[in-house]
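Session log. Operator J.P. requested a structure for one protein chain; no other inputs attached. Running the standard single-chain path with token output.
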Amino acid sequence: MNKTELINKIKKELNVNEKEANTINKIIEETFPVGRKNKEKMITRFQDELNIDSKESDKIYNTVMSIISKGIKEKIVHPFKNEKKEK
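Structure written below.
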């Protein structure tokens, strides 16, 4: 999954606009997504940069991690799948 696909999935899954989706993606890129302290850092940054409460931040975190893990799983299950279908 490339960056554009990730941003589009974030917009669709979380029902956010382009600017918010880019902010979420930026936070994910700048913070390694594995580890409890990093989860807390991301949730805090979501709250600060998007002006949302902790419940909404946690929802964003869980949704984005789900999107990323589905992308990783897809690559593991179908490692040679061509993402761009040629005609």
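Operator note: The first helix runs from residue 3 to 14.
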